[in-house]
Each structure stands twice: as C-alpha cells, then as structure tokens.
Amino acid sequence: MKKLIASFMLLAAASFFAARAQAQVIVIANPGVKATEISKSDLRDVFTGNATSLPGGGNVVPILLKAGTVHEEFLQVYIGKNDTAYRAGWRSLVFSGQASMPKSLDTDAAVVEFVAHNTGAIGYINRSTPHEGVKVLAVK
Amino acid sequence: MARIIRGSLAAVLSATIAISLSLHAQEFKLGSKTVQVHGFGTQGFIHTNDNNWLTMKTSNIGSGAFTDAGVNMTMQLLPNLRIGGQAYDRKLGQLGDWHPQLDWATADYRVKPWLGFRGGKVKTVLGLYNDSQDVDSAHTFALMPQGVYPLDMRDATLSHIGGDVYGTIKAKKYGKFSYTGYAGDQIQSTHGGYPYLLTIHGIYITKSSGLTYGGDFRWQTPIKGLLAGVSYEENEVTNTGNLNPSIALGGPDIWVSYTENSDSQFTKTIYGTYTYKNLRIDSEYKYFWRHFTIFNNQFQAMVLTHAWYPSAAYRVNKWAEFGGYYSHFDTDWVVTVPGQVEAPSESDPSRHIYDKVITARFDMYEHWYVKAEGHFMDGNAAGTNPQYPDGFYTQVNPQGLKPNTNAIVVRAGFSF
Predict the structure, then answer these.
(1) How far apart are the C-alpha atoms of B221 and B271, rounded to whole Å?
(2) How many CB pairs under 8 A join A and B?
(3) Among B20, B80, B107, B403, which residue's CB has the most CB atoms within a 10 Å radius?
C-alpha cells in the first residue's frame, strides 16, 4: 500500500514539474506584428504552414528551433505532434509546392535575434532567455 | 551474381548515406530575396516470390531498378506571393526510365486565409495524399496503398497545368473547412503505366493530354486530430500515337495512327484521418470510371475500379515507426475490340488485388531513413484485356501470372 501511495506521489510530482516545464515556453514576435495575443488554433496553423497571416492582419513567418527541450515542449503543447511527424508535414508541403520551409535556428538567442530584426517573424523560446527587442504574444 | 548485387546495393546505400550526411538545406540570395533549395532521393529494392511486379524483374533475386529524386527552388517574392519549381526523375523498372520532368512550377498568391490562388504546373489535390505521394520521407510506408495510389499511375494523376483556387474557413466550434478547386490541362507522361500497358496491344502513345477539373473539400472536425474530406475530378483525355496490329495479332508489319478519347472519365474519393499522439489512422475510398472510344467511335471500352484501404502507423520513438494497411483493389471492364469482351467475376485473380502490408521505418539520422515492408497479395488484376495499370503486366510475366504474390520491399531515402 505504501508503495502504491509513493508511486502516486511520484506521478503527481512528475506531472507538476512537467506542467511547470511547459509553462517555460513563450511565443515571441517581431514588434511590427500587430497582434498582442494569439489563439492556440492560429498558432498551430501558422506553425504547420496552414496560415501565413493572423486574424488581426499582417503576414507572419514562423521560425523554429532545430531541437531541444523547448522545441519538444512547443510541439507537444501547441502543435500536438512529435518532431518527426511535424517535420514530415513540412516536407509534404515543401516538396509538393505548397510552402517554403521555415528557418530552423540552433539557439533561443538566435531566434530572438532573428525575430527582432525580421518583419513578421514569430518564434518560441524559453521564458528565461533574454528577449529584448521582441514582443511576447499571449497564447489563449 | 548475388555478390555483385550485394556489392551494388551496399555502394548505393553508402552513397545515399554520404550524400544525406553532407547535404543540408541550402539557400542563396537573388538580389534581396532568399532562394531556398531542397531535395530528396530514394533507392528501393523489391523481391517477389513469383510474379514480376511494377515492371521490374523482381522474382528470383529481386530488382533495385527503383530510384527517384527531386530538387526544388522556392522564393518568397512578397509576403503573400511565392514562386518555385521542382525537377523530378525516376526509374521504376520500365517506367520513368530516367526522363526528367518538371514536377511542378507555381506562383502562389494567398490573398486571405480563405482565398488563395496557384497557377502554373500545380500538384493535383485529390484525396489525402495524391499531391504528396512522391514525398516518401513524409510517409510511413515504402509503398503507399497501391489500390488508391498506384506507383505506375503516378505520372497520370499527379499534376495539371492550370490554376487552383483554395482557402480555409474557420467555423469556431465546428472546426475548419478547407477547399481547393482547379482546372487545367492534364499532360501525362508517355513513360507511365498506361502507355506501357498498351504496348502489349502494339499501341505506342506519343501524346496524352486533356482538360481536367475538380475539387477537394475537407473538414478539420472539432474532435482533435480528426479530419474528413471528399474529392472529385473529371478528365477529358485524348491519347494519340501509333498502332502496329501485328505485335498483338501477328501478320504484316503495318503502322497506323491511333487515337483514343475519354467520353466520360471521373474519380471520386472519400477519406478520413485521425491522429492521437504517436498514432495515425487513415482510410480512403476511391472510385474511378472511364468510358473511352478508339478510332472515331469505332470501338468502345469501359473500365471502373474500386479501391480502399485502412492503415495505421505508430511511432515508438524518434528512430522507429511501425505500421500496416490492407489495400483493396478491384476492377471491372467491357471492351468491344473486336466483339464484346467482358471481365470474369470479381473472385477471379485477374479482377482484384487484396494486399496485406506490414512496415517498419527507421529514422537513422536527421535526413536519412530506411523502410522494410512485407506485402502479401491475393490476385493480380491482370487479365487478358486489362484496361487499368495496377502493378502486374504480362510484358514482364511472359510465362503467365500466378494468383498470389508475396513481396519484400526495402527503401532508403534522404531529404534536405
């Protein structure tokens, strides 16, 4: 019985820390992007190549991280796909002439730098990464 | 002999790995604009126990005459205007035969999320995967379900020269609706399965084209991961070429001009796909009908096919994915050349192919993967008067076709 309770406590603790980890991902955009918030559905559309603009107006360009926990969490929380399935979706679009491949950068800092200097750019980083020069979009 | 083949396969695989490890997506500047360059390539090997398959000599040792590659360039001219093109080449036994083709070349202008236009040579949206069936790296299976996506008909169904109008409309709690409507000229390759099929009758197609139009409507339902849709396409194809009756019937060697017109030709599909975490389930049904006339209505032929499949794939981890499908294909035909010839009952092996498939896919590196697949086929759908190419041809099976075929398919590929 004690083992069972311990297992539940461990599971609860894991869920708590997983939730905290998910909360570490923030969505950033070039200051020229009009929107201040974005719905989960719109975010998914932009990052899966199904939309190139936001409802408030203005074109946006998704910027990806190449790999890492922030990237994995972003896909899990907002896209609902693993990295392999996600990249496969983009390859289908690119090789059938329906989209250009989004730029993938190595680090959070590189994403901040690119988003800050390119009109319409929208990306995601760890909350703790310094992000001056970009705006943070609230995801609803 | 086996040593040479093993050596060749090892060389091809090594080259594939070397290429994939050294290649990454490239881009360069053209004025102030960035041009992206992407490419892919695959090498397959097929072994069958009895019948030769897909125009290759796959029985006995097997065949590696199964290669394709493509490279594209795209440029974002304006925030909502993109242009690009892709070259593609393939060798699939007797098909493709290393005749490079312009796969697509489009200008794509998206005015609003609900309204966009594409023009040029455009991939045809028909069912779940018609426009992306070449993108092997995006699929679990080494061969897509062949009833719905026959490799030998790829050149006939993939694209059109014309225009598309497309868009997505959000319907709040009801999900999203996407549509594509298109019209254009469906110029078909003379190196595809249908022209090859006709050579058994002494017919050599030199040109194949005609008006095509259709549409696709899909619904991203409020149930997360569930999508359903329908597609419809009409074709008015004219095939012209030359006929030498002596090849099929014997007698003097005479060449006459040959023309066949599709009086009525259409395809209907209905499909659905469901994704939950690492599990993906697809299903599609396709109905194809063609009534065509030969030599100014002197002879007529009709063919219809039903094809459907359910498939499932599960990704275990970053490196491994497993899946399977059941592909059902049956065909019926009536030919009045000469006299009336009707198809036997559907239970006859010459009327159907029922294919049970299991697949393992391994993603070894970021850009490289390999798939291994087993096919267990009941039937060959290749009677004495077949009108629809479906993988089995009497040209490469002169000894006659056996009712069942088992196959092993190994396919490695890369993309960047």
Answers:
(1) 13
(2) 87
(3) B20
Residue A57 touches partner B, C-beta closer than 8 Å: no
Question: Which residue of chain A comes nearest to B178, CA vs CA?
Answer: A50
Q: How far apart are CA B328 and CA B377, in angstroms?
A: 10
* Per-chain mean pLDDT for chain A: 87
Residue percentage of chain A with pLDDT more than 90: 70
Peptide bond before residue B338 is cis, with ω within 30 degrees of 0: yes
Q: What are phi and psi for residue B384, nearest 5 degrees?
A: -75, -20
| B180 interfacial to chain A (CB closer than 8 Å) | no
- The CA distance from A41 to B64, in Å, is 45
Q: Let me know if B281 is exposed, middle or buried by CB neighbors in 10 A (0-12, 13-18, 19+).
A: middle
Cα dihedral B10, B16, B17, B19 sign: positive
Contact (CB<8Å) A53/B132? no
Position B384 confidence tier, pLDDT thresholds 50, 70, 90: low
B159-173 tens-digit pLDDT: 999 999 999 999 989
Q: Do A41 and B280 touch (CB under 8 A)?
A: no
A104 φψ region: left (φ > 0), alpha (ψ -120 to 50), beta (else): beta
B235: left (phi over 0), alpha (psi -120 to 50) or beta: beta
Query: Which tokens is B368 given?
Result: 């490289």
Q: Could you tell me which of B337, B382, B313 has the C-alpha nearest to residue B150? A: B382
In which band, very low, low, confident or very high, does the pLDDT at B3 lie, cut at 50, 70 and 90? very low
pLDDT score of A105 more than 60: yes
Measured CA to CA, the distance from residue B207 to residue B209 in angstroms comes to 7
Contact B410, B45 (CB under 8 A): yes
pLDDT for position B406: 98
Which chain B residues touch A122 with a CB distance below 8 Å?
Answer: none
Q: What integer pLDDT is reported at residue B242 of this predicted model?
A: 94
CA distances from B8 to B2, B3, B64, B113, B232 (A): 10, 8, 9, 49, 44
pTM for the model: 0.88
Could you tell me if B63 and B93 are in contact, meaning their C-beta atoms sit under 8 angstroms apart?
Answer: yes
pLDDT tens-digit readout, B230-261: 999 999 999 999 999 888 778 888 899 999 99
